[in-house]
């Protein structure tokens, strides 16, 4: 028996692929109406971003899905994204999860997994050494 057969995927606790897509859609509605964050997304093809972001979240919450998009360090480098921006972005995710009835425990688990990517996104490891 594999680990994924013993334990339900975290993705299931987010409502499966369709539930996740609703969460990501809502997260970007919140991000794009946040004056501290919206300018980062000017001119970005949002359909593609939502699709790739949904795939990324599926990959960190399910053993069965692989992320096929751009390297996260490369795609965020040079954009001036600070830890404060990261934290604020994640708070919109957290609210989107809450409003889609994801349990507090599942939300904590998702946020814990995301924290591992904060250096890649804020460039802490690739700007000025
Ligand atoms: C939870 C943290 C984050 C994750 C997991 C994440 C992940 C991603 C992914 C998967 C993509 C798509 C890559 C592709 O097209 O192949 C992307 C693109 C992008 N991200 Fe993030 N991101 C995060 C936080 C942020 C933050 C905080 C900002 C800015 C405030 C940001 C700005 C962008 C922009 C502007 C793009 C579009 C790049 C383009 O297509 O030109 N991201 N991100």
Automatic annotation (TrEMBL):
Record-linked SUPFAM superfamilies = Globin-like (SSF46458)
Keyword RNA-binding found: no
Record-linked CDD domains: TrHb1_N
Task: Tell me the Gene3D superfamilies matching this sequence.
Answer: Globins
Q: Which UniProt keywords apply?
A: Heme, Iron, Metal-binding, Transport
Asked if the record carries the keyword Iron, the reply is yes
Domain of life, per lineage: Bacteria
What's the protein name?
A: Hemoglobin
